[in-house]
């Protein structure tokens, strides 16, 4: 039972109990460890063949420890996706913040480039995400991470394009269509790289940046 296992996965043997901050840190570290194991197993075995037992073995814990931290495989997968995107988002945000106030051309360069830079160092995560996005389904059979789940991302990209239009940097166009198109191009960039690992991901990101800048910039505006 949960009460008999502490967050570190060790039996409760009556020894000193961790303080609340210590317990929270132990739980956070353990969850992250299990999530990393899930990423590795899914990337190697595929989503359909990745079992909780295999993930537990990879993490060096029992299935009971996983059950302590996650309600089941579905929650584990959802938290895995969240962790990957939280870290990716933090990386991109740090690159954007370092640039300071930027126009759309610089934003496209940093945004697309930093996505490619981060994932280039986390190929296993990308493979695992591909497995999850194409196979993880809800109880009614719908893809858990379909188009609808990307609404907040589309809205953010749309806002960036509208801001560029308001500043006069960008021509008139449907910002939602451009937002969806940009995300699709980024997704395809990673999909192609996952199949062709020798492909120059950084160069692809630069070409994508140029493509969307030329497609969106106001007529007569010099390249940045």
Detailed description of the structure:
The protein is mostly helical. It folds into 2 domains: 1-70, Orthogonal Bundle (Arc Repressor Mutant, subunit A), CATH 1.10.10; 78-224, Orthogonal Bundle (Tetracycline Repressor, domain 2). Helix content is 67%, strand content 0%. The protein is built from 9 helices and no strands. Helix 8 runs antiparallel to helix 9. The longest helix has 27 residues, at 73-99. It starts with 19 loop residues before the first helix and ends in an 8-residue tail after the last helix. Residues 51-70 bind DNA. This is TetR family transcriptional regulator. Pfam families: TetR_N.
Main traits of this protein?
single chain; 224 residues; mainly alpha; Arc Repressor Mutant, subunit A; Tetracycline Repressor, domain 2; 9 helices; disordered N terminus; Tet_transcr_reg_TetR-rel_C_sf; TetR family transcriptional regulator; transcription; transcription regulation
Which helices and strands occur, and which strands form pairs?
Elements lengths: L19 H26 L6 H8 L3 H7 L3 H27 L4 H17 L2 H13 L15 H16 L8 H21 L5 H16 L8
Helix pairs in contact: 1-2, 1-4, 1-6, 4-5, 5-9, 7-8, 8-9
Global geometry: elongated
CATH class of the largest domain: Mainly Alpha
Task: Name the beta content range.
Answer: under 5%
Look up the CATH topology of the largest domain. Tetracycline Repressor, domain 2
């Amino acid at each position: 039972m949960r009460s008999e296992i502490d967050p570190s996965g060790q039996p409760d043997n009556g020894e000193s109990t961790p303080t609340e901050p210590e317990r929270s840190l132990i739980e956070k570290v353990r969850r992250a460890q299990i999530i990393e194991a899930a990423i590795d197993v899914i990337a190697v075995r595929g989503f359909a063949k990745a079992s909780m037992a295999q993930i537990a073995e990879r993490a060096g814990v029992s299935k009971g420890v996983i059950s302590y931290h996650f309600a089941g495989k579905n929650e584990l997968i959802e938290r895995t996706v969240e962790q990957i995107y939280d870290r990716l988002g933090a990386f991109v945000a740090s690159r954007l913040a370092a640039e300071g106030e930027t126009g759309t051309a610089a934003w496209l360069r940093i945004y697309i480039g930093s996505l490619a830079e981060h994932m280039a160092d986390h190929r296993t995560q990308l493979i695992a995400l591909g497995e999850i996005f194409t196979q993880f389904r809800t109880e009614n059979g719908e893809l858990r991470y379909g188009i609808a789940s990307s609404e907040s991302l589309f809205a953010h990209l749309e806002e960036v394009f509208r801001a560029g239009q308001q500043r006069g940097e960008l021509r008139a166009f449907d910002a939602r269509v451009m937002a969806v198109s940009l995300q699709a191009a980024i997704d395809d960039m990673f999909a192609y790289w996952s199949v062709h690992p020798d492909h120059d991901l950084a160069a692809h990101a630069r070409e994508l940046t140029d493509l969307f800048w030329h497609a969106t910039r106001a007529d007569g505006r010099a390249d940045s």
